[in-house]
Amino acid sequence: MGVVVILILSSCRKDTEEDCPVPPVAVGDVNVILDQFPFETLSEYNFFVGEMSNQSPNTGVQPYDIIAHLFTDYALKKRFVWIPPGEKAHYVGDHKVLEFPVGTVIIKNFYYNNVQPSNTTRIIETRLLVRKQEGWRFGEYVWNDDQTEAYLDLSGSYTDIEWIDENGVDRAANYRIPSDAECFTCHKNYNIASPIGPKPQNMNFDQEYTNGSANQLQKWMDLGYLEAMDPSSVSTVVDYTDINESLLERSRAYIDINCSHCHQEGSHCDYRPMRFAYSETTELINLGVCVEPNELINSDLIYVISPGNSERSVMHFRLGSTAEEYRMPLLGRTIVHEEGLELIENWINSLDIVCQ
Amino acid sequence: MKKTILLFIALFSVGIAQAQNTCASSPPINPDQVYTVSAINGNVPPSFCEGTAGSTDAGEWYKYTASENGSITVTTDLPGTGGADTRIQIYSGNCGNLNCEGGDDAGGTGTTSLATINVEAGTTYYIVFDNRWYSGGFDFMLSEGAVILEGLSFTNSNIVSVGSTECVVDMNGDFLDDIVSVTATNIRVNAQQPGGGFIATDYITTNADHTPSWSICAGDINGDGFNDLLYAGGGGVTFMMSNDTQTAYTEDSFDEYVFCQRSNMVDINNDGRLDAFVCHDVDPNVFFINHGANDLRFYQGGLGETPDGGNYGSVWIDYDNDQDVDLFIAKCRGGDSPANINQLHRNNGNGTYQEVGIESNLYDNVQTWSSAWGDYDNDGWMDALIGASSFTNGYHKLMHNNGDGTFTDITAGSGWAEGELFSGTGIEYAPADFNNDGYIDVRTSSGVIMLNNGDMEFRPEAVPSSTGAVGDLNNDGFLDIMAGGTIRMNDGNENNYVKINTIGTVSNKSGIGARVRIVSALGAQIRDVRSGDGFAYMSSLTAHFGLGFDDEIERLEIYWPSGIIDVIENPEINTTHNVVEGTHVFTDVEEVEGITSITTYPNPATNVLNITADTDLKNANVTIFDINGKRVYDAVLKNNSINVEALTQGVYIVVIRGTEKTLQSKFTKL
């Protein structure tokens, strides 16, 4: 945790120096002052070294990943966590967010590659979740076009983006950057703000580190970020893109990460019958199989999930819709996740059950 | 010989097997006989009475001619069907011109079908089994029965809409309800023609930042005589303002993030200009105050300030009969959040509102997205049916207005309670008299309209596609329902009706917030003109009353937001009255037949006015109007006297409004 001073050479390609914005210089340690949170600019935290757009973590900023990813209009994510030096997170349960110490910052960058027209990488936003004394609080930072800085904006906005995906398909979205109120809608349990991703069920897998591959939870313990716990007993979700896993397990993982923040015990919409958290979907009825929906959309859609018949399933209809009043997830996406929809369709159609 | 017979039988069988592939060759069905169909591979029907078209591309056709009036039931719920996912469409008319009569998708056990319709002697019905879900074999049977008494019946017709169709309101100023469908860049108005039918006009607009995904409402904000529109979207609000010739609409989109739910147009600060209110799902509610000359300004706070929202169904009605609109908000939320507790905001009359949920007994965490407010027992006070969207925090609630600022839960025995007649959940509950019997019914979004028996009891009437925008789309005095491109035209009955359009002058031009009251033999009925009822739809601004068999109306009263009262004696029934504010100002003292009048003394009065009457006046609502009909005093009567010291010199009328009679007297203030 020594002092790091780096001179930044601008990568600006404009002709005259006056046209090139000077990116902020990262000097020193990570800078989190709880009672001044949130800062006006992302650079003030010193989470990254070098050009901030390289997303290279500073000392103590730990990259992490989760097994099953939330779909947000195909945006790519880089996730980090900053735990105050000398402090540790605690295991609370396989399916519960780790208990992080006060002062923890969870960082999530949203970006796209091959952004048109110039085939560049564009970071759209960085979301922060900070654990203050009084609870978790949100910080939303929107990146400028020059990719040199991100500015606090809790009021929400839209940005258009067009990119070419890894299959060469041209895609576009009117991407929604959330407001404070939208963050809280998903990031809460029993009305108390909370992270969603960092649960042992989502983190219990191998990651690549500088000295080789290791179990992520074990690595955190080795680095002193996590109190001792046993990863081998954790009930873990599968990677829903892994075709070697069963359709049921893949779907449970998909539904947990994309839906359970609003559809589990204690959530925004727990007055609906669905219980989509991975810990709750050991029962098919909690997934909505043979469950009549509260709201009659049309006479085609007789159950939340009609076994064997994705076209008669409310879940399939909503996952395939872009209409604001029908689509699910309701917040966080504006276009359809084609691969996710196909997974759920295949799973529903594989169900060999007759509703009574 | 044998060979020939076998060949003949084979050909005969093939002939039978192919007959049901087309309408024209459809074979007749005999009742009470099981038919086996081997596959669905005939012609696809040209339209669908039940369900969506989807990938349907085949049907099997049969016909039935009724020999007498009665009903038929067609079912595939038979052992030979093996639980297959069948669907039935039933038509009348002829093969070149089929009219939907009914149908069914999954009304039998599991996904089998069971369709029942009333039939008329001599009429031929075409019964089609389509392959929306399944193309294999099944069994079916037709049985005959007695006529099924229907409290309501509707006939479908289609309208060509573009975009969302959620709005029925007069757009071209002729006081006939039109159908509005919108996209981000187009408003299609299907204008109802005086002789029947619709003519569509498209108005291209600049790109609306927000489209009405959650709700739409209409009203004349700029006061030019043509209704404007509000699109309530998931990210914010866009207004579309009509010009003063109704030839174009101008977009006014607001940047502020609003996760909209129900929206309404209403004069919030009672300055005579129409404003707008929008429920915010995850933040305090927002509203737009009209400062005149196209100056609409965004505000947030003061009308439902729960930090995390939970606001779903707002409705503006006068619950305490003090002639200003109050706001009830149906609320919903999970996670044990108090954001799901309903709120009643009482208008203090001076531009401020006070939340009185607890005091009124409407403080309740039932999970609801809309409530249907109407005077269900015609006792002069607005009651509320609070409709559950989920039963996790309790069932539907029928709340009776006690007339003293409080409500009593009278759900038990009303048909709405748990275990009683209606077990649906949904987001739409809105009031309307669909059978014109003089008692307000409630439409739900569960395929049921709850018909009001008149004694705070309701009975369910199955009406597929029971929800949508409501208005009179063929000007026959019966309310029709419009959703998604299909008009469900009310077949009507022998009951009488009257319709009133309120045209404001001092009050907002649409007359929104006006209390319209009629008195006929069956009693007194009231309506509060409102923009935005139920959850998503915009229904007609016309005040509609059923009269049952009453053939005359004693009086029609309009209590305008301005305080002006217009009274029309004996208005014509079975027609529409377009009443301009202030053109029938109530100034004459009248003795109400059959009741003793009140006396006020001394006359002239300087400080105190005493009131006597033969009827008990305890807690009566007293209003004093000046000679122009303008309300100058309004309160609950105490000690049978009123302090009139503050009134300027002049002649005044004292009005005491009882539950069925209005008592009046005139006095002079010196």
In short:
Chain A is α+β, with helices and mostly antiparallel strands and about 350 residues long. Chain A has helices at about 180-185, 200-205, 215-225, 245-260, 315-320, 340-350, and strands at about 50, 55, 60-65, 75-80, 105-115, 120-130, 135-145, 150, 155-165, 170-180, 190, 190-195, 205-210, 210-215. In chain A, strand 5 and strand 6 (about 120-130) form a beta hairpin.
Structural description of this entry:
The complex is a heterodimer of chains A (356) and B (670). Chain A is an alpha+beta fold and 356 residues long. Helix content of chain A is 14%, strand content 23%. In chain A, the strands form five sheets. A six-stranded antiparallel β-sheet of chain A has the order 3-4-5-6-7-8, with helices on one face. In chain A, strand 13 and strand 14 form a beta hairpin. Chain A is globular, with a radius of gyration of 21 Å. Chain A starts with 47 loop residues before the first strand and ends in a 6-residue tail after the last helix. Chain B is mainly beta and 670 residues long. Helices cover 3% and strands 42% of the residues of chain B. Chain B contains two helices and 50 strands. In chain B, the strands form 13 sheets. In chain B, strands 1-8-3-6 form a four-stranded antiparallel β-sheet, with no helix packed on it. Chain B has a four-stranded antiparallel β-sheet with strand order 2-7-4-5, with no helix packed on it. In chain B, strands 9-36-35-34 form a four-stranded antiparallel β-sheet, with no helix packed on it. In chain B, a hairpin with a 4-residue loop joins strand 49 and strand 50. About 3% of the residues of chain B have low confidence. Chains A and B meet through strand 9, helix 1 and strand 11 of A and loops of B.
